[in-house]
Amino acid sequence: MSSGLPKAVLYYHPKSIWSSVARLAVEEKGYAADEIDFKIVDINKGENYDPTFLRLNPKATVPTLVVPLSNTLSEDVDSRYKALTDSTTIVEFLDKSRSSLSRTHTTSTAPAPALTPATIAATSIAKTIVYDIIHSDEASPGKLKFYNARDEAGLKKLRQVVLPALQGRADALRKHIADGESGVAQVSEKTKQFWASKLAWIEPLAKVIEAGDRPTESLSETEKEERAAFFKVAKQTWETDLPNVLGKLTKEMVGPFALGDQLSVADMHLIAWVTRLVTLAGGSGDDEGKTVIVKIEEYVGGEHVSRKKLGKLGTFWDGIKGVRSWQKIYGEGVF
Question: Does pTM top 0.90 for this prediction?
């Protein structure tokens, strides 16, 4: 690709589940290495809350794909850009932008299989899986990650895994808030309120997790109440919400992939979500599907979810491990 032509830029974090959705789509669509620039945003250090990034994406989320407008794809025209700020929109854009109908300047000779479902019925199933299930509050990978402890032993382990990230984000937000109040950073009241709302969510969670290395009897009454409230949310997330999600998923999935034998837009989201779940439940990329569903059942609790009802998930896991994009993103370890 000529250096004078505008390129898309994908802002992402290597261990972000939704960033993985976009990266999987890039691989599946066969984009060449010189067609998209990749820029890491370290969300564990709160770089996504920086005013510069907020100008691209006021939601402070990754992935964010900044793309040149189609009518400015020329060296003799000043390029204009727009930002796509959620994984669903990004995957749809990546799918449509490399096809026989695409106007994108492409240097790749790799196949560009269509990910968009070919029928109305398949489209309906894909939308249900992506929007109603995977991106629902019940299926939130953030809650599954940060509330991945239902007893003292689990909380002590969780402390080691997530506390540094929570503290890094909180430190960044406090600095931005202070800079905004002092005038060092010229930002709107809306941005200040946004930072404050994010900090208000992180601080209480970080407080409970930071105390995770202390036995309950050593806590103050207030700290005991906070820990109990944390465990209540954790149990709701893992023992009620997650089983509901898995039940809905296995009902909608056709198998072996979301819509059948071919990968689709739904699979980009499902691959990342299932891989995160397997990781949180103690699985690894070396596990076979039958092993994975046993681990999920044992981790969640057999009284909440049964391996007998997770057969499609096991088959799906065996299938995605052979997919080139999964191997590229998760070949060195699942997350």
Answer: yes
Contact of 60 with 45, CB cutoff 8 Å: no
Asked if 258 and 129 count as a contact pair (C-beta separation under 8 A), the reply is yes
Segment (H or E) for 165: helix 152-182
Query: Cα(268)–Cα(244) distance, rounded to whole angstroms?
Result: 21
Which residues are within 8 A (CB) of 188 and not within 5 positions of it... i.e. 6 or more apart? none
Reading the chain (335 residues) residue by residue, the pLDDT tens digits are 445 567 899 999 999 999 999 999 999 999 998 899 999 999 999 999 999 999 999 999 999 999 988 654 445 445 578 999 999 999 999 999 987 666 555 667 777 889 999 999 999 999 999 999 999 999 999 999 999 999 999 999 999 999 999 999 999 999 999 999 999 999 999 999 999 999 999 999 999 999 999 999 999 999 999 999 999 999 999 999 999 999 999 999 999 999 999 999 999 999 999 999 999 999 999 999 999 999 999 999 999 999 999 999 999 999 999 999 999 999 999 99
Longest dimension (CA), the chain: 71
Burial of 184 (0-12, 13-18, 19+ CB in 10 A): exposed
- DSSP states along 145-159: HHT--SSHHHHHHHH
- CA angle, corner 135, sides to 90 and 309, nearest 5? 125
